[in-house]
Amino acid sequence: MLGFNTGKHKDSIEITTDYDGDFRVTITTKEGEVVFSENLKSANKTIILKGFSLNDYSLNISPIPLILK
Question: 13: buried, middle or exposed (CB in 10 Å: 19+, 13-18, 0-12)?
Fold first, then answer.
């Protein structure tokens, strides 16, 4: 289960993940304009994004599946 909340600072978002791994994180304005889109790795089941606030932006996070060959 993913959790989102305001980080320790007003202008940060803390994402809690069920496991450490790679995630696609996309941040959009309330109008739908993409302002950030990156693949990020969680550490200690947490991803912290500085410079963004849940009051001003929408957040989408998707796990990137591990492909075994």
Answer: buried
| H/E run at residue 15 | strand 12-16
Distance CA 27, CA 38 (A): 9
Query: Taking the C-alpha atoms of 23, 3, 60 and 63 in order, what is their torsion angle to the nearest 10 degrees?
Result: 30
Task: Please state, as a whole number, how many other Cβ atoms lie within 10 Å of the Cβ of residue 15.
Answer: 20
- Structure confidence by residue, pLDDT tens digits, 16-49: 888 999 999 999 998 999 999 999 999 899 998 8
The structure's pTM equals 0.78
Structural tokens at position 3: 């959790």
User: 63: closest CA among 34, 40, 37, 32?
Assistant: 40
